[in-house]
Design goal:
heterodimer, A: 364 residues, alpha/beta, Rossmann fold, six-stranded mixed β-sheet, four-stranded antiparallel β-sheet, 12 helices, 21% strand, B: 328 residues, 31% helix
Chain lengths: 364, 328
């Protein structure tokens, strides 16, 4: 009986500690004045547009701490496409939200790590940047294309209004006429046939592919250096998906932007990405160049993921499927998270979590 | 043909467009416009096409979730479109559907056990004493855990919700399952589990599937026969190996080449279709595909191509194929 009580009180203590941590983080984030020294940093490599270093984003819930992103590090070189793959719930979207600082507070907090962004005025750490500064960057230098074009456009405004708003916010000096010309240019850029007509259309009048084009146009309207595409083609048909991917590739070269592509479709990744990061349960389990990952995958999870995708022209009797499910994010084991689903697990897997090892130059 | 469990003949479904002062009918959206196919018992028919091509409407019309405008659906020798309401109701457990969107097809206020069990009780699928066991068995077969039975849909991820939907359909011990994009919302590793599950169930229980999907790789994996739809019509239908080896219709070719290949070294020389699918309320004249077809000819703009058999059950509706075959 006494034991039970002590466990209970221990749990309570922990919960209190977590809440205190959450509150202190929230307070630090919402300070009115954050000294510049806190967020100016150095890049490891000048060619990178973004470096994520040991990022940890937790959600403090009533039933425990969900470690959605737990020690994620990767770099995005300028002009390249980096793809983050993984199952739903593996933390890939939270990683992108952390970069944009869109994590819903106060329960969601970036607990640790750095996101170094190589801005024009010098490298800054996005984790500590004040909100006002972040707002200048969002949509302007770093922009995001969301998953569902259905729900991410406002149904009561015309498409033109919505693109105008983004341009106007970041270029307050432009006149209304200039803004409109620019919006129509944007619509033209993303391959919309009748840009003047579509400018005055409401989102419900457009098809899914058109809407996604509008979203891309909006994201590109301020010529961002980094485009975060969070499952940009998941809701679309294959023929439209092929169009959109082609468009993204073209545009990336036109404006020399980097793309962080978040997706679960390994086919899309193979088409688009230069570098691939495979995530599982909040951690990176493998990263490398696209060719390395597809030709020579090392981690059993990556291998399983590649095998479980049916491919046109490849006939197999039974698809390989990874047994089991992703573990509960609240009580993550201290050993390798994949141990229980892994076919090759052996004794060391039960020990503490394994650090990423370098297998080849570009490959960890 | 005695072995066809389900035969669809010239199925049409037109949705009226209402407008004007008295809400009169101004026109029709021809969502399904003369579709014919048959499925043998224990086999899987895959139906592919872009969104808006009417593949979902075919599935729903088969089950009389929409009343068909014309045509016949013959199941076990009976035209189910003529059945009375009560007879149709007693037939429903045999014909089940798994819906596309697991977020809107589950009642958020009902726990999972009840979602799966409601139909079982209504149709008295198992005796009362075995009710709970039946539900748990079905849940387990679909990869859900026992303690999920009292949870509510919002507590589940999209993948798990789709498992609940599948469990709900399978709990009624159906003959035919119409799977309307059952794996589109799932992750690849879970997708593979579900596809394997569907295949295992087919083997164990002799199920027949109509598998509606836009993912060609999945359709190729699971189907015995594949039909390609475009704007309410079947443009091509053939046994799986035939259609993937030798696609004849230009739309099918474009569709196949649009599938991303999970291999970074293969950069395919692909046919990218321009533009969107035209509105089914006002479809193009002649061949409906001619507005986007890379090899359209003059005849395509005026004449509707005939849907005919080019041998081995390979049906195509295209003027070009007709001409090429004529030459041979």
């Amino acid at each position: 009986m006494g034991d039970k009580n002590s466990i209970k009180s221990k749990g309570k203590m922990e919960q209190r500690k977590n809440i205190a941590l959450m509150k202190s983080l929230d307070k630090a984030k919402n300070r009115k004045k954050i000294p510049k020294s806190e967020y100016v940093t150095e890049m490891k490599n000048k060619d990178n547009i973004l470096e994520i270093d040991n990022l940890a984003t937790y959600f403090f819930t009533d039933s425990g701490v969900v470690k959605a992103v737990n020690g994620v590090s990767f770099d995005i070189p300028r002009g390249k496409t980096v793809a983050v793959v993984g199952e739903s719930g593996c933390g890939k979207s939270i990683t992108s939200m952390s970069i944009m600082r869109l994590i819903q507070g106060p329960s969601g907090q970036i607990v640790d790590g750095q996101i170094r962004y190589n801005s024009e005025e010098g490298p800054i750490n996005l984790v500590n940047v004040p909100i006002s500064k972040m707002q200048e960057l969002r949509g302007n230098k770093i922009s995001m294309i969301f998953q569902e074009p259905m729900t991410s456009l406002n149904p009561v405004f015309t498409v033109g209004d919505q693109i105008d708003e983004a341009i106007q916010l970041h270029n307050p000096k432009l006149t209304a006429k200039q803004i409109k010309t620019r919006s129509i240019e944007m619509l033209e850029l993303v391959g919309i046939a009748r840009p003047e007509g579509i400018y005055d259309a409401y989102p419900h009048e457009l098809s899914g592919g058109m809407r996604q084009r509008v979203m891309i146009g909006m994201a590109l309207s301020c010529e961002p250096e980094l485009i975060i595409a969070d499952e940009p083609t998941t809701a679309l048909d294959v023929t439209i998906q092929a169009q959109i991917l082609e468009l993204l590739r073209e545009i990336k070269d036109k404006v020399n932007a980097s793309i962080l592509l978040i997706t679960h479709d390994l086919g899309v990744v193979a088409e688009m990405a230069d570098y691939v990061v495979v995530m599982y349960a909040g951690r990176i389990i493998e990263k490398g160049t696209a060719i390395d990952i597809y030709k020579n995958p090392q981690h059993p999870y990556t291998i399983g993921l590649l095998n479980s995708k049916p491919a046109v022209g490849k006939v197999v009797d039974k698809l390989y499927s990874i047994p089991g499910q992703v573990p509960n994010p609240i009580n993550m084991p201290s050993h390798c998270y994949f141990k229980d689903r892994c076919e090759k697990s052996f004794e060391p897997c039960g020990a503490i979590y394994f650090k990423l090892r370098i297998f080849a130059n570009t490959f960890r | 043909m005695w072995c066809d469990l389900l035969q669809v003949k010239n199925l049409c479904k037109y949705f009226p467009i209402r407008g004007g002062v008295f809400q009169g009918t101004k026109g029709f959206v021809k969502a399904v416009d003369g579709v014919s196919f048959s499925i043998e018992k224990g086999h899987t028919m895959g139906l592919v096409g872009e969104s808006g091509c009417g593949k979902t409407t075919v599935g729903r019309t088969l089950l009389r979730l929409h009343e068909a405008t014309s045509g016949e659906v013959i199941y076990n020798g009976r035209n189910i479109l003529d059945l009375s309401k009560s007879k149709m109701r007693s037939l429903r457990p045999e014909l089940q559907i798994v819906f596309q969107d697991p977020y809107s097809s589950l009642n958020p206020r009902v726990p999972v056990g009840e979602i799966i069990g409601e139909g079982v009780r209504q149709h008295k699928i198992v005796p009362r004493s075995e009710y709970r066991k039946h539900i748990l068995d079905t849940m387990e077969a679909c990869g859900l855990q026992k303690h999920h039975i009292d949870r509510y849909p919002h507590e589940f991820s999209g993948g798990q919700r789709q498992r609940i939907c599948i469990a709900r359909a399978l709990a009624l011990k159906p003959q035919i399952v119409i799977a309307d994009e059952p794996v589109s919302a799932l992750d690849v590793s879970i997708q593979a589990q579900i596809i394997n599950l569907l295949k295992d169930l087919q083997r164990d229980r002799g199920l027949t599937y109509l598998f509606i999907s836009h993912d060609l790789s999945v359709v190729e994996h699971i189907s015995d026969k594949v039909g390609v739809m475009y704007l309410g019509n079947l443009v091509e239908m053939a046994p799986k190996t035939e259609i993937f080896k030798n696609p004849m219709h230009p739309y099918t070719k474009a569709l196949f080449s649009a599938v991303p290949v999970p291999d970074p070294e293969v950069r395919m020389n692909r046919v990218i279709l321009q533009g969107d699918i035209p509105s089914p309320a006002n479809p193009p004249k002649g061949c409906k595909f001619h507005t986007r077809c890379p090899v359209a000819m003059d005849i395509c703009k005026t004449q509707i191509p005939e849907y005919k058999d080019y041998g081995d059950g390979h049906f195509v509706a295209c003027h070009l194929c007709e001409m090429e075959c004529g030459k041979k």
